[in-house]
Sequence to fold (1060 residues):
Amino acid sequence: MRYEAPETIEKACQLLAAEAGHARVLAGGTDLLVQIKTDVLDPSVVIDIKKIAATRTITSDAAGFKIGAAVTGAELKEHDALKAAWPGLVEAANLIGSTQVQGRATLGGNLCNGSPAADSVPALIAAGAKAQIVGPEGRRELAVEDVMIGVRKLALTKGEIIVSFTVPARPKHGGDAYLRFIPRTEMDIAVVGCGVALELDASGTCTAARLSLGAVAERPLLVAEAGRALVGTKVDAAAIEAAAAAASAACRPIDDKRGTKVFRIQVAGVLARRTIQLALDRANGKTGATH
Amino acid sequence: MQDKVKSPMSSEFSVIGTRPVRPDGVDKVTGRARFGADLNMSGQLVGAVLRSPHVHARIVKIDTSAARALDGVKAVVTQKDFVSQSNATTNFGEGTLNLMHTVTNVLAGDKVLYHGHAVAAVAATSSAVAKQALKLIKVEYEVLPHVIDVDEAMAPGAPLLFPDMITEGVKPAPTTPSNIAKRIDIVLGDVEKGFNEADVIIERSFKTAPVHQGYIEPHACIATVSEDGQAELFVSTQGHWIVRMLCAKLLGWDINKIKVTAAEIGGGFGGKTVVYLEPLALLLSQKSRRPVKMVMSREDVIRATGPTSGSSMTIKMGATKDGRIVAGEALLKFQAGALPGSPVGPGCMCAFAPYDLANVKVIGYDVVSNRPKVAAYRAPGAPISEYAVESVVDELANKLGIDPIEFRLKNVAKQGTKAAYGPKFGPVGMAEALEAAKASAHWRTPLGKNQGRGIAAGFWFNIGGETTVSLVLNEDGTLGLTAGTPDIGGLRASLCMMASEELKVPLEKIRVQIGDTNQLGYNFLTGGSRSTFSSGMATVEAARDIKKEAVKRAAKLWELPEEAVEWDAASGAVRPAGPNAGKHKPMTLVDIAKIAGKTGGPIVGYSRLNAHGAAPSFACHIADVEIDPETGKASIVRYTAIQDAGRAIHPSYVEGQYQGGVAQGIGWALNEEYIYGTDGKLQNAGFLDYRIPVASDLPMLDTIIIEVPNPVHPYGVRGVGETCIVPPLAAISNAVSMATGVRFAELPMSPPRILAALDKARAEKTAKM
Ligand SMILES: Cc1cc2nc3c(=O)[nH]c(=O)nc-3n(C[C@H](O)[C@H](O)[C@H](O)COP(=O)(O)OP(=O)(O)OC[C@H]3O[C@@H](n4cnc5c(N)ncnc54)[C@H](O)[C@@H]3O)c2cc1C
Fold:
């Protein structure tokens, strides 16, 4: 196994595209190294992207934020403006593992590992994040909900790397939240995860809403129906109930060691309700980040 | 904590009951301590194990030639390289041992019996080469049907693991083989008569999942065998004399050829009382003439070591209106794993032990199925059977409208109670623990919304056994204490404290170590909560030996008869026994050490004994849980463990044992389980999905130490390490049942299971309206 650490994205793409064997991008390594050590993967070359500046920085302008794909959860948490704008997203990234894991784990790795239960992904989808992708054919952009297409399956083609994610600036009356269900209090993989971002007008009427679920299908889902159930309402109990029902209806989970089908469908509704409420409170300025 | 640090719990003592820093503490926090995988030797090889990809299969052929031919491979072994053993049961310590089963679990013979069963082992120059070599071993299997569940394994027509297994303990002996290795019967009085007197009878069936001991340190060892057959083994174990004996038997070597040193141990909980890698490492080293180091992965640990049994049980109990339990009956079916030896025996014996009952009947079955062979786990068997009994006791109390503590007090086991399994109890602390629970602030605190409170009693025998300790008086009067029971929970601190108390020598003047198998006589393992009891007893004896010798030496120096010299306990010095003996300045051990040479040579205190008189420890735990009614998640919000320690030598380590037992019990009650697919393969062989509690899952676990001294031990010690894992299962189940209004009878009470039960109850309620 070879280790490469190129300093430009173009070089990284080239190495990736040119490898005859099995090439893998390395960000924090909290998934990749574990998979190599347990014989799940056996790459011939590992390409570390952390030397590439664009993957390691967070920038912002009036339009919003650009977050490098290899920025760690701990770094996201230390970025006050991002935390104030998208507390749900930052909290989701910081649910990953433990303090030690958060010092390594990245948004790009979380998405590209291709697990339907990845915690930061529903939060990114709810926030309307876009992934900036560079490959041998040049640059392109994909909505985050379109990056994963199945368990361990991505819409990226050979040689493509995600460089960064963009999220819009926080709307005036906007709020987001991410909640997950795990049997313990930490160090667990989501049995269900739910991200919500919504926007209100001055009168408190919902003008936009996105709800995304993790761990209830072969990939994280953007539940458009749930968003529609909220838009145009005051996000009252009836609207929340309708959105929660839409969330449950969108689930197509499996029975596995982490939970039963029935359990996941039911808890998706419960989490949808709780997450919408938290996002709403944030949109109304009632509460900020919880940690 | 009950007491301020360094203030003795009992004024009779100056050291016992205080909380000094442990002698092994600095090495552990600085990383200097050497655990099983921390020793390296020059020229060492990496040992690795090939494991079965099948759940149940006949081994048709093993071809190791390609692996042997690989560059860097220095040895390959299969079961054929071990001495062949007869299928006979021999006595061993407090239990029995079947060496054919032992060797079969180290390496499979003609069949693999579970997914992950070891089949062959290699030693190679690097782990990469070893891995490669494992891939080159060609094993031809003939796959057989498997059975995982205990009830299914007992059913007629189940796939048989051993075509010649005839159930022991049944008369007349069955004529057909089955997966039932053994049946156990315990009878006291007449349960039929008892049930006839009952006003209320509850009968309920229970299931529990197998759970792993969950020690953080995986099994690890390093072995080196010289050309003339002298072997050294450094290993993380609870009993290095046991390891030595088992390895000698499996390899057919003389015991004196093997020296075993116990590493610092990162948890065992019973799981490190057997051998897995040790005989392999010795054999590979013998064949390769190089040191061989072997370390298990977490996956191997969960797949192929431990756990304790899962079970299927039915309990029936009857009581009169005024709260007297008149009969208790239990049917206990325990999974042994792939080879016989579940702890169903102790499970049967402990089931009703907290109570003074006239009529008891217990039937137990030891059942094999295609799972890893179980190993001891803290109070083996007791948490399982007592969980079921304590759940029924709770239900009886509810039904009778009697407070659950009062109900237990009405039936409590006390001095003179004849236990169903035979003995009459001496002084025991069950009633004291219940009274302390009743008096606790916890018991009186009101509950919040969606909360429930459960209590449960618990019992474990504790054991003694063979023990040797030596205590050397050094030239400057300091002391060297060597014990042979590995220190898992603060033993060295407690032994030092007992020696210090006895000899009035400051703690820091005593250096304590766990000796290797060449340094002391035989020691049974650290298990059965015996080490502070047994090694403590031997330490006190060795200290008394030193005192006796000191008296002798002073007498010689003063030219007095020995009777004219005495040890003064208050000052820790020898002095003339009375005015007639003349005016001699009292001599401390420092003074005695100086004259040792000219008065007869080195002074060594020694004790070798079989510690009898181990006394049981009883407990009562109180658990508060809160249920999220929408997700079924149970959180422990408050917990108090109350237990009789006999005497707490070092209260912090007693409390640590209580808390550790509770933490493991919480995992057992709420989330831990072995999850199998229909293919018979374990799906959660790792700490991600085998969910032991993490620190943030637990509230502060409060403890109350009760002291009803054990009259047989010089300082009153009972064992404390096991009873504490017994009550949590039922205490939590009773709390969940109270919080939800639904009676739970299956572990773990994981969120999907609780939510399904709540939904069912809600649906029934709606249907009634
Ligand atoms: C103890 C522990 C606990 C964990 N807990 C959680 C948890 O609670 N929730 C959760 O969601 N996850 C959890 N994880 C999984 C893991 O930490 C996360 O998925 C993490 O975000 C992965 O990021 P990384 O930078 O370490 O990825 P890496 O391991 O470096 O990469 C993961 C995969 O993505 C690919 N990749 C990485 N970056 C890019 C890129 N920019 N472009 C293209 N491909 C890329 C890699 O090739 C690899 O296949 C846990 C892991 C551990 C070890």
User: Anything to note?
Assistant: Residues 58 and 67 of chain A are 4 Å apart (CA to CA). The pocket of flavin-adenine dinucleotide is lined by residues A 24-32, 34, 49, 69, 95-97, 101, 104-106, 108-110, 112-113, 118-119, 161-162, 189 (CB under 6 Å). Chain A touches chain B through 20 residues (CB under 8 Å).
